[in-house]
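[09:14] KT: can someone run the structure on this one? pasting the chain below
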Amino acid sequence: MTVAAQKRMTLQEYLKYDDGTDTRYELVDGVLVQMGAESTINTLIAVFLIDIFRSIGIPLVQIGIKQKIQVKSRYASARDPDFILHTEESFAAIEGLSEACLKLNDSNPMLVAEVVSPGPESSENYQRDYEQKPIEYADRGIPEYWIIDPDRSLIRVGTLVDDVYQFTEFSGEQLLISPSFISLDLNAAQVLNAGL
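[09:31] RB: done, structure tokens below
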């Protein structure tokens, strides 16, 4: 991770920040931190998830990308998940805002998914998605958290139980089981390959 700016920012300044590039940032302890570039498969998986959830009747307004979630953490002030499934209440909290960010006191989405970028377990992106974000999203009370890891060919579906995610791993032809979306008819390989 490279620090994009040294000046400490508030959440409001972060939400309005635009450096004129397509660079993604997260706010870490008041400092902008540049996120790595997304690989092609990562973006294809996010688009594939949109198609899948639309096919089971989820309204487009409940699907979020490029929307932020404020968290309480020593690592970050706000996260930028790859994919969000909103409740009606969480979408209503950001509807019409010029900077879409669910604040701490806003309703939670029903599901957040992160597509892990390649790298060893010691990498910052692995630590963020596997170690930090499960704690942050659980602390918010988000019912379901998916870690989609094309590099390791697995998907971890986390269900919030007693304020901690209990994860089940899926790979290959295993049918994904989502407690929130029992009508999904989808295996891990389909997601990991973005339906290709």
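[09:33] KT: thanks! Residues 1-5 have pLDDT under 50 and may be disordered.
[09:34] RB: yep, looked fine to me
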